[in-house]
Structures are given as structure tokens and as C-alpha cells.
Design a protein that fits this description.
2 domains; binds zinc ion
Length: 196
């Protein structure tokens, strides 16, 4: 079997029920999930005595997420850790982000683990990622349902993100204008050539 040892630690091996050096290993897995072929690295324990691999409860959970993340990436959806990272940018809690978006209170918690988000929710999260101005407007709408401390904290985070991105937006706007101008010029030159 193709497996890579990442750790070796002496503890009770739940495979043979003896205490010995148990290896943590990474094994490349390929499976079909919702009709899509996915490949991912799964983590297992390896018992040298029984020569068997097995999973702890925690590995059962994390391997399921790894598999679903591989599926999400293949479908162009945000992975669970990307969703965590977007939320972390604003320093907002899972339940408060749900509140802002008008989603059920546990939705984000589930998306950050086993449940695969639908396309519409995925697009909204991607928009949150790049649009602190939109986040600020959602935050303002939800102000009455948030504690003043939370509101202030999220507001400060989103404002500093907005300021950080503002230069980038400006540069993009200038670039877009330049491209429009160039297209117009090319069009004018083309018309002249046609006229000649
Ligand atoms: Zn063992």
C-alpha cells in the first residue's frame, strides 16, 4: 500500500488493544462522491503488529471532510477551510454571519465541516470574501440584532479591509476605463481603415 508515515507515537492501539508505537499515515484515496471522481489524502493509524490500518473517531470525521473538500474544489466550490478563512477575515462568529445573511443559525457551522454548500450560498460567500463594502451594508442592516461590542468589532474589521482593498478597486476601475478607451481607439482606427 502507498502510505506515508507522518507520526509515530506510543499509545494504546485500538486495533490490537496493546500499547505500542502506533504510526499515523497518509494514504491517497480515490472515490466517487455524488457521481464525481475525487482524490484526496486520508489519514489513518497503522498497527505494525496486526499490519492493519484503521481510523480513530476523529479521523473518520476529518477524512469525511477531506473527501468532501476534494469534491467541493473539483466543483469550483469553496472548501470548508476557505469558508473558515473568509469568516476569519471579518473576525465574525459563525452564528452572527448567519444572522447577517439571513441563514439558519447553524448553516455556516455545517458548511465549515461536513455539509456541502449549494451554488447560490457559495456565490454569496465568495462575494463576502471580496466585497467588504457589501459586508458593511449587511452589518448595518443587522445592527439591531447584534450586541454593540460585536457590531463595533465587525465594523472595524470590515472597514480596515475596505480601506486595504480600496486602492485595488481604484486601480481596477482605472484599468477598466483604460481598456474601454483603447477599444474605442481601435474601433475608430478600424472604421477609418474601412472608410479608406
Ligand atoms: Zn496495534
Amino acid at each position: 500500500m502507498n502510505m506515508k508515515i507522518v507520526n509515530t507515537k506510543k499509545h494504546l492501539c485500538t486495533c490490537c488493544m496493546e500499547e505500542h508505537e502506533v504510526k499515523t499515515v497518509i494514504v491517497p484515496e480515490h472515490t466517487v462522491f455524488k457521481g464525481i471522481e475525487v482524490s484526496y489524502d486520508a489519514e489513518y493509524m497503522y498497527c505494525d503488529l496486526a499490519e492493519e490500518i484503521y481510523m480513530t473517531d476523529q479521523q473518520i470525521q476529518s477524512n469525511d471532510i477531506r473527501m468532501k473538500d476534494a469534491y467541493r474544489m473539483k466543483q469550483g466550490l469553496l472548501s470548508s477551510s476557505q469558508i473558515v478563512a473568509i469568516r476569519a477575515k471579518y473576525g465574525i462568529s459563525q452564528s452572527d454571519l448567519c444572522l447577517l445573511l439571513g441563514w439558519g443559525g447553524k448553516t455556516i457551522t455545517r458548511y465549515e465541516s461536513h455539509q456541502i454548500q449549494d451554488k447560490a450560498h457559495d456565490m454569496i460567500l465568495k462575494k463576502i470574501d471580496v466585497d467588504p463594502e457589501w459586508f458593511l451594508s449587511l452589518l448595518t442592516d443587522a445592527r439591531g440584532n447584534l450586541s454593540e461590542d460585536s457590531f463595533r468589532k465587525y465594523y472595524d474589521a470590515a472597514t480596515s479591509l475596505y480601506e486595504k482593498y480600496r486602492d485595488l478597486y481604484l486601480r481596477k476601475a482605472i484599468e477598466a476605463q483604460r481598456i474601454r478607451y483603447m477599444k474605442k481607439r481601435i474601433h475608430q482606427v478600424d472604421s477609418k481603415l474601412v472608410a479608406q
